[in-house]
Structures
1.
Amino acid sequence: MNISEILTEWYEIHKRNLPWRGIENPYFIWISEIILQQTRVSQGWNYYEKFISRFPDISALANASEDEVLLLWQGLGYYSRARNLHHTAKHILKYFNGIFPNRYETLIKLKGIGEYTAAAILSFAFKKPFPVVDGNVNRVISRFFGVTEPVDLPDVRKKIYILAKNILNEKKPDIHNQAIMEFGALQCVPQNPDCANCPLQSGCVAFSKNCVEKIPAKKPKKEVENRYFHYFFVKQNEKTFIRKRQESDIWRNLYEFPLLETEKNLSETEIFDSQEFKKLFPDFSKFTILNISQIIEHQLTHQKIFTRFYEISLSQNFANSYFFENFKNIDFAEISDFAVPKLIENYLKN
Ligand code: SF4
């Protein structure tokens, strides 16, 4: 038996029953693949079902507001992926009459669809011979063929893609791809893979050279940047103030409270004395501080956000022009209608 046959035989016995398994609708495949790039299967399942029940096809997604799409996505992180989903749905509706393209060259030009997602859509939905190389496949291939260089280097990625293509069963690319992905997820796992009971063991270079735990190798990590946020939860009667974040660094188009960002960690007194604070609260005598939270640490991929939340009440009838011009004035109860970063969602829950 060749590698593909071994993997397929293993797959038929061990595969998990997942809601998107065997689906041939390219729209559903696309949604599931983008969600699974964000999260583990157990959490992704829930999001996938919510997403396709609210947006059962391209036109439902294209015609929704971006706020609604982001709200359903809330908690998954990487919000640019949700914005890209929405943008691409609109594009497909407008330029392809709502019909999913089935050519690699067309798919790869769509926002948010890279080599991996295009291959998944083409092989699962259209049975075209494209190898899918996700993290799981990367691991299986690099271990089996003994690729010791960092797999995140462009040349090494190319090499792994070629190896993946060489072992692809072109007659059944959908089953082959599902099988190797599942094999990486369940058998050839990152820590302590079950090599003793592995059907690929006799040909596996990493196993024979006793370097399984060292593969796949990665480039040294980028340094994490620390950022210091001060969010002001301003209360006036039953209302508060939020705005849509426009900055392109993180959380673009999500909603947030008035924010001051500082270059280092400042004490409350230093914050209240700062020029930025005085600009944000020109007439602070009309405000009362109700509570200041401990510093909350929030980890993103390359950033760590240190945040304090300041709960502040604004005099009942005082119309602070700065706030009314720059922020949306909403009822507390309405906050759940707006997509907010996980950091703010957690704060509100507590
Ligand atoms: S022998 Fe171990 S490292 Fe090699 S493919 Fe099997 S599980 Fe992965």
2.
Amino acid sequence: MLRLVWGTLFIAFCLYTGWVYLYCDEKTEIVQNDPSVAKGWELWQQKNCQSCHQLYGLGGYMGPDLTNIARDSSKGKQYMHGFIKYGTGRMPAFGMTDEEVEHIIDFLAWVDKSGLSQVPAEAVHWSGTYMIEN
Ligand code: HEC
């Protein structure tokens, strides 16, 4: 009897894994082959932005989560540029060139396309996944 239960669970696991593999990959095809994004990622690490900011909730908590800042229509590129280039009383200015700041903004735009940091409850599908236009 126990064998039957485990066997059924194993088969269900294999079928589900196969299904996820075959049909649930459209949202994960966010290939990073843009050199500007790669440079932005490098700068993000060098300047240690994550010590104060989070991506998907992970990181320091002095500044806000930046996962989806790129899609926030009340902010935008100029806004991000201003913060990153000049800092604020609480956020340091890193003395980056305009070009470097643009790389970081491209990186943050790429991160944004990978998903949502805060998924609204009404967007969660019964299967536990969520469907939201990126
Ligand atoms: C010492 C901590 C610290 C570091 C390091 C830091 N930030 Fe910030 N950042 C902040 C704080 C705090 C704020 C909120 C603005 C304020 O209150 O002054 C902020 C705000 C921002 C904002 C605006 C966010 C919003 O939603 O309004 C952006 C964009 C940003 N930071 C990007 C970066 C990037 C990119 C780096 C790395 C190059 C970085 N920050 C490094 C502390 C930091």
